[in-house]
Amino acid sequence: MTGMSGEHAGEHVGELSSTFANEVCPILGGPVDPEAGVSHWNGKEIGFCCAPCQPKWEKLSEAQKADKLATAMQSSTANGDSASHAHDDEHGSHDHT
């Protein structure tokens, strides 16, 4: 068995998103980007829509994290899209593509 290295290491990045507990960012509600970072919480891998969301997550209390993740998980099953992805904070407008 061989490991991933060199030029093939990045080929499976898209597959990593299936390991996240959420499909929707718990901070801003956008679709999870596997390259935006990951936090480990309560045995789960939490994904984010963009890099600035991860430190915001880390600053939340345990109760806030539980609430935000529950809301994100409900959003991903109810909406199935990113129509609710709003940038109403200092995060501003940027491109997720």
Give your account of this protein's structure:
The protein is of the alpha+beta class. It has a domain at 17-76. Helix content is 24%, strand content 8%. The chain has two helices and two strands; from the N terminus they run E-E-H-H. The protein has helices at residues 53-58, 62-78; strands at 38-41, 44-47. The chain has a two-stranded antiparallel sheet. A hairpin with a 2-residue loop joins strand 1 and strand 2 (44-47). The model is unreliable at 1-17 and 81-91 (pLDDT under 50).
A few lines on this structure:
With 97 residues, the protein is of the alpha+beta class. The protein has helices at residues 53-58, 62-78, and strands spanning 38-41, 44-47.
Question: What are its keywords?
Answer:
97 residues, alpha+beta, two-stranded antiparallel sheet, disordered N terminus, globular
Q: What is the spatial order of strands in the main beta sheet? A: 1-2
Report how far apart the termini are: 34 Å
Quaternary: single chain
What is the number of strand segments?
A: 2
Low-confidence stretches: 1-17, 81-91
Helix content bin: 10-25%
Averaging pLDDT over every residue, what do you get? Answer: 76
Major sheet description:
2 strands, antiparallel
* Count of alpha and pi helical runs: 2
